[in-house]
Amino acid sequence: MKLAMVGLGRMGGNMAERLMQQGGHEVVVFDVDPKARERLAQKGATPIEGLDGVRDALEAPRVVWLMLPAGQVTDDAVVALERVLDPGDVIVDGGNSNYKAFIADAERLAAKGIAYVDAGTSGGIWGLAEGYCLMVGGTAEAVALVEPAFKSLAPTGGYAHVGPPGAGHFVKMVHNGIEYGLMQAYAEGFELMKAASEFELDLHEIASIWRYGSVVRSWLLELTERALAEDQDLAKIRGWVDDTGEGRWTVQEAIERAVPLPVITASLFTRFYSREPDAFQAKLLAAMRNQFGGHAIHAESDTQAGAGDPVGKSAG
Length: 316
What we know:
- This protein is an alpha/beta fold.
- It has helices spanning about 10-25, 35-40, 55, 70-85, 100-110, 125-130, 140-155, 165-195, 205-210, 220-230, 245-255, 260-275, 280-295, 300-305, and strands spanning about 1-5, 25-30, 45, 65, 90-95, 115-120, 135, 160-165.
- It has an eight-stranded mixed sheet, sandwiched between helices.
- Helix 4 (about 70-85) links the parallel strand 4 and strand 5.
- Helix 8 crosses helix 11 (about 245-255) and helix 8 (about 165-195) crosses helix 12.
């Protein structure tokens, strides 16, 4: 099939390339960065200068796939496409958009005869070679039109039409919430092993053997092994962990639906805490312990110098 890929970053560029390699699809590409367009053109894609160009570059019914940051950038692209597309055309949003906002946009577009399909996409930078897991929401007719591309992008068994418009983004949101919890569990376990200095554990070796036969083996563990192979102490990495929205949305959704998510919620809050190396709440906890039990307070100079006696009186 022939389709357009808009947004040629780490995901979109590789997806356009996989579509050409795996399925022999004709891909029209656009990105605000002309170098990104040129890179894909050298691999066989057809570049266009702007979103207005998709109308003439594609035959009806047209399929335009967006791989853009969620929020205003995607919203602006959808509005621009809404002006140039015809009834029967399809827009696919492969980013991590909020499913509620997506449903509202899908209803607006449907009134004009334009289908809006949400393709929750997982695979990261490895997707070009390994394929992408695709969690797709949309009408049966629109999904069927784009299905040849879905099947080329996904490995065998890695694609499903999970429900109506919005379902794909909802499932991807929960997927990413689960990812938070899995990552946090690995991080905590390896930190505990690192703290057991008396055993002089080789963390990279442990991550490596856990990949074979262990009940905790996973792709995330494989990536952990890769990271530890470079530096077991991770000395060059700052312990600041971002969140990109999906974890927050998952927790908010759980609150609205009264579904307990203690692990995912705690993992999200841990990411917040990672951004405060000298958190006020930790200081206050230390101060309260000193007040009620006389427990030691460590001065800032102790942490900075790595030595020194606690300030205050220990209660034992």
